[in-house]
Amino acid sequence: MSVFATLVGRWTPKAPAVTYEGTTVTYGDLEVRALRAAGWLRGRGVAKGDVVAVKLDKELVFLDLHLGALAIGAVTLPLHTNATPREVADLTADAGAKLLVDDPAVAAAIAEHPPTTPADVGPDELAVLCYTSGTTGRPKGACITHRNLLATVTALHEAWRWSADDVLVHALPLFHIHGLFVAQHGAMYAGAHAVWLRKFRPDAVLEALRRATIYMGVPTHYARLLESDARPDLAHVRLFTSGSAPLPASAHTAFEQAFGHRIVERYGMTEVGIVLSNPYDGERRPGAVGFPLPGVRAKVTDAGGAEVPRNAVGEIRIAGPSVCAGYLNRPEATAAALGDGWMHTGDLGFVDDDGYFHVVGRESDMILSGGLNVYPSEVEAVLAEDPAVAEPAVFGIPDADLGERVCVAIVPRGPWDPDAIEARTRALVNAYKLPRRWFRVDALPRNAMGKVQKAVLRERYAVSVREARPDEAERIATWNEALCAETESFRLDPATVRAGVQRVFEGSVGARYFVAERGGEPAGQLMITREWSDWRDRFVWWIQSVYVPPDHRRAGVYTALHEHAVRQARLEGAGGLRLYVETANTAAMRTYERVGMTAEHYRMYEQMLTEEG
Ligand code: MLC
Ligand code: AMP
After folding, report:
1. Which of 113, 261, 347, 410 is at a distance of 20 to 30 A from 434, taking alpha carbons?
2. Does the Cβ of 148 fall within 6 Å of ligand 2?
3. Count of domains for the chain
C-alpha cells in the first residue's frame, strides 16, 4: 500500500484534520486539496518517480503538495524554509528535482485546479528524499520509501496509543522528519486533529495545549517552556514527547515538577525513522531513549559490528522496515552506512541493565543545535572560500537553550574582521548553521596526524556558569579590585572590597556570586543582589559587579553569565531582573564593551524593566 491510499482509507471526511490560523480543514477537504495539488503537479509535467522540491513556509499548501506528490508516486524533497539560494541550487541539482515550489502563491492555482486520480504506488517506491550529511561529508539524499514511512507511523501509532480523539499541538517545522513524519503523519494516520502553530512560542503552545492531548517537541522547546512564567493546568494532556536531540535528565525532572507530566523521550534519525522510545506505560526513564519500537531491531556494537555487553558504550545500529533504502546516487556511502543491512547511526550509546537504550554522544563532530543538525565540514567549506580566512574549524559548545551552540575558531589571513566574514557566510549558509561565536586563533590545535582536534576547541571555549563557592572568596575579591581599578569611577580600598566579598559569603547581605568557567578555568563573575519590591510583591534581582578578566574577554563569557542570571531569576521566581547602567560613566561603558557587553544586552535588561510596569 502507498502512504496516501493508506491514510485516506483511515479518514472520516467530516473530522477536523488541521486547524491553522483560523482555518480548519476536514479530512474530506484534505483529500480533495491533495488531489488538486496532484493534478497541478501533473499539469507541470510531474510524473511518477519525479522529485518535487518544496521550499515553503509552514502553510497548508505544503501539506497539500506533499500528499499530492505521494498520491501520484512523485517524491517530496522538503527544503528548509530559510535555505540560501546556493543551498537550494545544490540540493535540487543533486536530487535532479523536476520542479521547485518556492512561491506560496501557488496555493491559489492549486485551489482552482481540478482534482486528479491517484496513481497505483507500491510500498517500495520512493516517497521522500531528505537531505542529511549522515555521519560525515556533504549532504546526501536519504531515499525514504512508502514502506519506510508506514513502518514509522504504524509503530508510533501503537506505541503512543494514538486515537482519532487526539488533538496534537504542532509547533515544529514541516521540512524535517519530526514535524512531518512523526507529528503530522501520526495525526493523519490516527485521523486526529492537528492544531498548527507557525513557530514555537512558549505562550502560544501553552495556550493551544489547553484544548489538546498531545505535544511533540525538541529539547529546546521544553527548555523554553520551563523558562516561561506560565504554569497552566495541563492535566488533560495525555502525552508529551521529546526527540531530535538529547533531553537532559534535569529537564525531564524539572518538567514533571512544573507541569506534572513525564516526557516520553524517543530516538530517531532521518535514515531510520523513529526507532527507540520510552514506554507509554511503564517507566519513562530520564536520560534514556527507551526500547526498540515494534518491528525494529537495535543493537550497540564495537567498530567491527560485534554486539558489546550491557552498559558498554558502542555504536547504535538499527535494522527494520523503517530503515531507508540508502543514499541517492551514492553507492559507496550507502554501502558504508548500510552494507551489512544495519544502519550505522554514528550515535554512541549503551543498553542499561533493564534494556533501556541511552545515547551518550556521536562519533562524528556533527552539532545538534535546537534539534537541527549542523555539519562542521559544510560550514568550514564555505568559510574557507573567504580570502580573509586561512583556516576555519567549526565546533559546538554546550548551551542551555539550544543544546549545542555553533562556534568557529579561525586563523585569519590579514586583518581580523569577524563581522565581514560573518556577513559573507550568512549569504551562503542558512542562519541556523551560522557560527554564533567567533574566535581568532594563531593556529588550530592538531594531533600528530595533522587532524584538527575539535575536542580541544570544545574544551577551550565551552563556558559554563555556576554558583560561586566559599573557597573562591579570595579570587572574587581580587577580581573586584581589578573591576574597581578599571572602571575608574570610584576607588575602594582593597580591605573594604575584601570585607564586602566576605560578607556575601557569610550570607549577611542577601547577595550571591555566579562564576563562569571556560576550558575548566574560572573566567568571570556576576553578582546578584535581591531587593523586595512592594509593587510586585516579590524579590527583584539586581545585577552587580560583572567582571571578566582580560584573557577571557570576547569569548562569550559575558553572555553566558547574563543568560545564567536570567535563567536562574526565572527559575527562582524573581519578579524581575534589573541592571543599573550608568551610561554617563564613559570609563565604565568602555569596560562593558571590552568584556563583550553590547547595546543588545542593555536592551534585554530594559525590556525586563518595562515589564515591571
Ligand atoms: C532558528 N535559529 C537557530 C535555530 N533555529 N539557530 C540555531 N539553532 C536552531 N535550531 C536561528 C535563525 O536562523 C534565526 O537566526 C534566529 O535563530 C531566529 O529564528 P527563529 O525561527 O525565530 O528561531 P526560533 O523560533 O527560536 O527557533 C528555534 C527552535 C526551532 C528550536 C524553536 O529551531 C525548532 O523548532 N527546531 C526544531 C527543529 C526540528 O524540527 N528538528 C527535527 C529534525 S528531525 P538569525 O541570525 O537570522 O536571527 C530529527 C530526527 C528526529 O532530528 O529524531 O526527530
Ligand atoms: P537527523 O539526521 O536530522 O534525522 O538527526 C538524527 C540525529 O539526531 C541522531 O543521529 C541523533 O544524533 C540525534 N537524536 C535524535 N533523537 C535523539 C535523542 N532522543 N537523544 C539524543 N540524540 C538524538
Report:
1. 347
2. no
3. 2
Cβ atoms of residues 290 and 266 within 8 Å? yes
Residues 199 and 288: their CA atoms lie apart, in Å, by: 27
Q: Does the residue 212 lie in any domain?
A: no
Q: 597 pLDDT band (50/70/90 cuts)?
A: low
pLDDT on residue 118? 98
pLDDT for position 609: 43
Q: Is residue 303 part of a domain?
A: no
CATH (domain of 563): 3.40.630.30
For ligand 1, atom 26, name the residue with the nearest CA: 200
Find the ligand nearest to 171 CA: 1
The two beta strands, 367-369 and 372-374, are antiparallel
Ligand 1 centroid to Cα of residue 80, in Å, is 10
Per residue in 122-139, pLDDT (tens digit) is 999 999 999 997 555 678
- Looking up cell 527583584 gives 540
Residue where one domain finishes, among candidates 428, 446, 461: 461
- Shared domain for 593 and 564, answered yes or no, is yes
The answer to whether the CB of 363 is under 6 A from ligand 2 is no
Does ligand 2 have an atom closer than 6 angstroms to the CB of 217? no
Q: Which domain holds residue 388?
A: 380-461
Residue 584 CB coordination number (10 Å): 8
DSSP assignment of 526-545: EEEEEEEETTTTEEEEEEEE
The mean pLDDT of 564-586, rounded to a whole number, is 76
What is the 605 CA–ligand 1 centroid distance (Å)?
A: 24
Say yes or no: 506 and 565 in one domain.
yes
Q: How far apart are CA 270 and CA 612, in angstroms?
A: 45
Residue ID of nearest Cα to ligand 1 atom 39? 371
**What pLDDT, on a 0 to 100 scale, did the predictor assign at position 601?**
57
Mean pLDDT of 231-256: 95
CB 529 within 8 Å of CB 437: no
What's the DSSP call for residue 376?
A: H
Strands (E), 419-551: 437-440, 463-467, 511-518, 521-533, 538-547
In a domain, 31, yes or no: no
Average pLDDT for the chain = 91
383 CA to centre of ligand 2 in angstroms: 26
Using a 6 Å CB cutoff, which residues line ligand 1? 172-173, 176-179, 199-200, 218, 220, 243-244, 268-270, 369-372, 402, 431-432
Q: What is the mean pLDDT of residues 538-563?
A: 84
Please, what's the b/e burial string for 439-473 (b: 16 or more CB within 10 A of its CB; e: otherwise)? bebeebbeeeeeebebebbbebbbbebeebeeebb
Cell 520512493 -> residue: 126
Cα(348) to ligand 2 centroid in Å equals: 11
Among 398, 427, 461, residue at a domain's last position = 461
44: in domain: no
3-state secondary structure of 554: coil
Task: Give the N- to C-terminal CA distance of the chain in Å, as an integer.
Answer: 60
Q: Is 352 exposed, middle or buried, given 0-12, 13-18 or 19+ CB atoms closer than 10 A?
A: middle
How far is the centre of ligand 2, averaged over its atoms, from the C-alpha of 268 (Å)? Answer: 5
CATH number at residue 434: 3.30.300.30
